[in-house]
Amino acid sequence: MSYYFTILSPTDTPIFNIAFGTSKGGGDGIARFRFPDTAQYMNQFIIHSSLDILEEAQWTNGGMYLKHIDTYPPASAYISAFLTPSGTRFLLLHQPPQLPTSGSSSTLGASSLLASGTTRSSSSVAANPTSAQTEEAVRQFMNEVYESFVKTAMSPFYRQGMEIRSPVFRGKITAAGKKWL
Amino acid sequence: MAAPPRHVSMLSISNSNAGTPQSASSDKPQTPQPPSTPQQASGLRVPSNRKTIYDRHLNRSRNAELSRASFAYLFAEMVTYAQRRVTGIQDLEKRLNEQGYPLGLRLLDLLFYRSTSTSSSALSSSSTSSSPPNRPLRILPLLHLIHGPLWRLLFQRSADALEHSVSPDTPNEYMITDNDPLVNTYISVPREMNMLNCAAYIAGVIEGVCDGCGFEAKVSAHNQPTEMWPSRTVFLLRFGDSVMEREKVLERSGIK
């Protein structure tokens, strides 16, 4: 599973992003997206396109973790969202690894059911993007990011909407990703 | 180059400070503080105890209370600073409001962080009893959040009253009353400025909280003294039209 994580300010400014791969089940933590040539901008594009759905979900669900909100079938990308009370958005794109046998499931389009069906064999977080365990793991990850984010926001030198450049923050996010995803 | 004489003088200074650098400075004469260079390279200054803000925890321990005197002093300085280049009372209140606004945005995140991480009901004790607190979606939960948890976070007690405007012309106006605001305890306003209320700072905090939650609002502080409470202050919250419209839509779809 490969991940792309972005933090967006309430005014849609990207303030942090990171790409990483799973560390569970022998993963090495390096992102391997399905379409590596276009991943760099397509991931951002897919994540930002889910903002409309997020803004709808925001007023029907009072929780901070809004769970899996959007799917982009052509890249089989799943998007989970977390909304801080002050309106900062954490968006995580996750893409299960390409299965060597199932060429059909990725090209079929709306394939979330198919994908979860074909990967039943391994129940790990990595292979099953809509399962309850994945939701729980993402929630834990988001909560840890939230903690670091609040610490950043409490700094008197940080204003809302500023890019987060701290290498310590990046390290914290990487560690959280390693721990939960 | 003027290096040799400077080097000599530096050597003599370091000699007078401590005896050890003699050999080090003879090896590398031009690097007076070698340990700082690797930290400079990463662009981050790490505190000497290696604890960055990310290593500290955000929950307030029971005894870590702030001195009221130091707060009063700091706040007095803030008022003086704001007063330095203003044209009138309204301008001064606006500046105080702007100082409070970013604090409100931050407090919001901190408040929710603390109420999620500590399962104790210190913050979420009011009407909403479920342990993971929800973001306020409607005006009333937002006002309860300000009246209860936010006030307790700031002042260790709830605000004294929460009212809705009775006039049918202004359904978007709400009032939160504090009988004795902490910020005004040590401030006596001169007679010629008797319209001024320095709790405009707190009004700014409230405005930041409302705005952060997605409720566009204008908040102002007004003096309403009574016999018993001479510094009684009413915070008037005026929500914008977009908020009132959304409120209607959410009411129709049954969201609380």
- Rg of chain A, rounded, reads 16 Å
Tell me the name of the CATH class of chain A: Alpha Beta
Strand content of chain B: 5-15%
Residue stretches of chain B low in confidence (pLDDT < 50, at least 5 long) are 1-41, 119-131
Count the E strands of chain A.
5
Q: What structural category arises from helix and sheet content of chain B?
A: alpha+beta
Backbone shape of chain A: globular
In spatial order, strands of the major sheet of chain B run: 1-2-4-3
Helix percentage range of chain A: 25-40%
Rounded to an integer in angstroms, the radius of gyration calculated over CA atoms of chain B is 26 Å
CATH architecture of chain A: 2-Layer Sandwich
Helix/sheet category of chain A = alpha+beta
Biggest β-sheet description of chain A = 5 strands, antiparallel
Topology as H/E string of chain B?
Answer: HHHHHHEEHEEH
Report the largest inter-chain contact.
A-B, 31 and 31 residues
Per CATH, what is the topology of the domain at 89-252 in chain B? Muramoyl-pentapeptide Carboxypeptidase, domain 2
In short:
The complex is a heterodimer of chains A (181) and B (256). Chain A has six helices and five strands, in the order ββααβββαααα.
Explain what the structure shows.
The complex is a heterodimer of chains A (181) and B (256). Chain A is of the alpha+beta class and 181 residues long. Chain A has a single domain (2-180), classed as Beta-Lactamase, CATH 3.30.450. In chain A, 39% of the residues lie in helices and 20% in strands. Chain A contains six helices and five strands; from the N terminus they run E-E-H-H-E-E-E-H-H-H-H. Chain A has helices at residues 36-49, 51-57, 103-107, 112-118, 132-154, 167-180; strands spanning 2-8, 14-21, 65-72, 77-83, 89-95. In chain A, helix 5 (132-154) packs antiparallel against helix 6 (167-180). Chain A is globular. Chain B is α+β, with helices and mostly antiparallel strands and 256 residues long. Chain B is 45% helix and 9% strand. Chain B contains eight helices and four strands, in the order H-H-H-H-H-H-E-E-H-E-E-H. In chain B, strands 1-2-4-3 form a four-stranded antiparallel beta sheet. Chain B is globular and about 60 Å long. Mean pLDDT of chain B is 77; it is low at 1-41 and 119-131. The A-B interface holds A 10, 58-60, 62-64, 83-88, 143, 146-155, 159-160, 166-169, 172 and B 42-44, 52-54, 56, 58, 102, 105-106, 108-113, 116-117, 132, 134-137, 212-214, 246, 250, 253, 255.
